[in-house]
Amino acid sequence: MTTTAAPRPVSLRHVSDPPRSKRPRAIRNLRITFSGVLCCIIVALVGLAALNGEANLLFLLFAISMGALAYSMLAPVRAVRGISAERSVPQVAIAGRTFALTYTVRNARSWFSAWSLVVTETPIGDEGPLFPRGFVSLLGPGREQRVELTGRCTRRGLYNLKGIRVTSRFPFGLFTCWVDRPAPCELVVYPAMGRFRRDPWRERPSVHTRTTHVLRERGAQDEFYGVREYREGDSHRFIHWRRSARTGQLVVREMMDVRRTQLVVLVDPWPRPPDTPVAESPHPSAGDEDEAERVIQAAATAVCDGLERGHRVGMICRSDMPIVVAPAGGRPHRQRLLHQLALLEPGNPVGLDDLVARIRWASGWQHTRCLICAASLDVTHDRLVRLLAGRTEATLVLSPRLEGFDALFDTSYRPEAGGRTR
Amino acid sequence: MNPRADRMLYKAEAILLTMVVVPLARAELVWWYAAILGLALIAGWFTTIHRRRPWIGERAGNVIALGALALLLLECRWLGETPAVMGLSHFMILVCASKMLQRRTARDHAQVLVLSLLLLTVAAIVSGNLWFPLTLAIYLTVGLGALMRYHLYLEEQRQRRHNARIGGDAVAKDEQVHHLSVTGPTAALAGVAVGIGVVVFAAFPRIGAGMFGELGATSRSPAVTGFAERVDFQSVGPIRESNRTLMRVRLETAKGIPYQTAAPLYFRGTVVDQYSRRTRGRGGWAWWRGDRGDLHLRLIRLERDHHGERVADLLPDDDDEPDPDQIVQHYYLEPHHEGCLFTCYPALEIRSHDVSDIRKCVEDQVLVTARPTNEAIRYTVSSAVTMSPSLADRLADERGQPRDPPVHRPSSRLDRESEILELTARLSGNLGNLDDPTERLAFVRRLESYLRSDEFSYTLNPPPLVRGREPIGRFLFETRRGHCEYFAAALAIMCQLNNIPARVVSGYRTGEYNPVGDFYLVKARHAHAWVEVYIPGKDWVTFDPTPAADESDVQAGLWLLRARRYFDYFQFQWANLVVAYDADMRREMIESFQAWLRRPSRDQRTGVGAVVAFVRELFGWRLHLSLRERLVYWVFSLLVVVLAVLIVYIFVRVVSWSTRVLLDLAEAQARQSRPGPQVDFYLQFLRRLQALGIRRPADQTPAEFARDLAARHPALGPASEVVQAYYEVAFGDHALDSDRRRRIDTFLARLKKADIPAQAT
Questions:
Q1: pTM over 0.80
Q2: Which of A139, A390, A411, B412 could form a disulfide with A194 if both were Cys (CB 3.0 to 4.6 A apart)?
Q3: Which of B:197-256 have CB within 8 Å of A?
């Protein structure tokens, strides 16, 4: 797997309070760019040469350059004055996938056009995400223009959008002036979605061995669910030969359990050194963060996969605030689960085994499959597996540190690119 | 890079480089680099831009740049003849030429634009003619427009790169910024830049009066110049006429009236009087300034008078009244690196902002600056039109005793001296005593007439000299063809051989009179040599033995001549007002501006004058007023100020409000006149459903509502068609056909009559 230097998600603790002033005002800033500094130096040198030589044409050139510089400083200020912008952004997005972001830029002035406007989000701190920038080359007086962009957030989390920044560097890019229009908004970015390269529940290895998958299944009352393309590892029994002959590629039947099985995803994203007491959990390192993100990504994929297969899906997470979501189905439940996964924060007051031991589902643990998504496996997970072995129908442990994780789970799957992996 | 943007930028760069390279070439009189750049521009257009196949690659471009750098070092470090700034311009021109032949990125375009700006700076240094403001105007229009478009293009690409880097991309279409018209902002920028530039230029404090003028006057032109210290016949070959402008002279009478004369004017430069062989008798023949060791050089310092001008008398003061025949000559002299100042004979007074001290050769009455004039200078000289006896006495007094100057005969005997003497004797006829002023004058007139006769002809391509033979004798008796130096030298020798003091003077003759600006334009082709002969009682008298040459201006078309005169006039104004702008001009301008500002306040009949008078009254000019009366003044003035501010505020608000209202009205009218989508049937549909008690929920789109309606009330099935038609009309800009409209109207009519089955409602 590749790790990308993506911006870190905004912590929930940084969700800003409502603005103190009742009427937020736009803040205008004017800065000189590097090109502007160079240009000023060149103009100053011309001025010095004029002073030294007393050459009038150099004086004239220097004076006109001063005029051009003055205009370059005033023009971007004029360009952003009277410009208002509105944003249309979805409430939720999925990490790694594009989402539509639309700005409506309006020139409220009656006489002057605005040139070279760049519309983007007001930056959220130094490590905030990068949002796309819209460019409006010319906006006439009283006109408005819609700028449709596609954004992409690489990390899950809650992004507190402060406002819209309208920037102009017209006419030569020597000075830049921007105005921040307050437009507070929240964007929840769900964890990135991968895919399972094959059905994780079809393998049946031994029960208590700490391998990639531990599967125990009672009965097999499957029903035809649909067909899909053949993947490596699929049993030849399920190949749909007639369809394969017609389409020219191998197609397998996909079966589903007619019973409405429950799937409980147990998420333990942040690893803990083995000798650390349960109550003490150090702050995760950057490497741990990456592993945790992969675990959360696998959990989110499992949640969506389970719901798509018609299971009732529940979730138990070990995080700063323990999350327990009872199994249920439907689109709102899916969003609820993904929302919880999006907002997971490190912290470990209670071990996952203790948490599970205290849970009493109304529907019980029968006909329940458990998927344990953990960054690293320790004694608590052994206890957890033993605890669940007697209650549940099947238990699967998925961890990036175990062999076969990449063979089962594809984290770089991009549905927008026609299903290709990066 | 986008081909259209590339083409647009190429055009702009080609125009800018062409405009900027011309003044450089004109200043240097070297057109090679301009030709190379021109060829590169043409070749680049057909290869790099038109066919998209660049002529040279990046590596070859780097090699050319290195070669240009080597040439720069060679020119500046080892050759030493080219000024460093011109060497730098050669380097930049070659780099630009190589860039034009390559496929260029945005960075290369930026480099070319920056280099063209630097070339403009070089042009400002070396070019003092009217081409520079033309170039500047092109830069302020074409250049700034191209830069703006270039910025827009770069800005768009920058955002695209950013969006691509973070994983998203702009959905909107390509902005096609190169199609945008940037005329408005370009005009605004040029206006602001010129406005601020003029103010800063005019108000910037100046210490001295430095100016550069044109660099090209330093180059070795093959044309005749008037600045040689000697006339060397061996080194003078065929002469090419040059149209380079050397100076502009405005002539005025003492009362400031423009002066124009039909008689030729001679602007004296240098004087030579000794004709001899060079290098101990083995070289060619040349004219020298004889008796150099005895020359009386007088140092003249220009002192500031009560007007702040630098003035010096060139002749000792005379207690008598000033000569009424004086003419005042205002010279604008381009740099010529010789140091002599041209004057009409005899010069009486000099004024200059640019020169602080000069040297005057008393014997020759020529002026020389302390250092060679590497930059343009202005000076004003007063001269007498006619030589009065008193003036001749003053000149003689300045020279001292003996009054008659010595005769500088040739140092060695001429080959054909006897023939020359025979010729002069034959021409003198009955004239006996040449010491008599009248006889001497008549004698010289006869010699002059002889040389101007048809026996001699003027040419710039005289027959080649024969090595070892004296050229003047050959000219007088064999070739009889030559230019002004031959004629002047012949006349001077004929006089000197007859013991008459004579000398050859180099300088310029008259020039072209420009009636638009009332000035004489003196060019290099007006360089001339003539003779001055000493006539007792009249001092040195000018004789011009050279036959008249054809005047090319007469042959030029009238409109062309007029256009050229206007161009010269603007050039003269540019040189005087901009290139020669100095601290004194700045002071005068500020003083005149202050006077202009104060002018209305002095006249109480004007509004401004009345207000100023009132304010003066108010602030204590009338100190005899009592405190109570002053208090009334203050309160009243305060009320007036408040009222004025209030009126201005109300006026601005009313104008702003009325403008906004008018704009809104215009917008509303435009909106009404604009044909909008005809969706009245849909609104009618909603109203009639509302009458039936059915409302569209706010969270449902029209299509969802229609589907829901059809599912719940099968009798309302046509609602889907209504909504579909609404979508097509409102958002698809389609029109309903008649059948569809009829069906919808029927359905709406049924809805109105509630002709719907009961289960529907």
A1: no
A2: A411
A3: 197-201, 204, 206-212
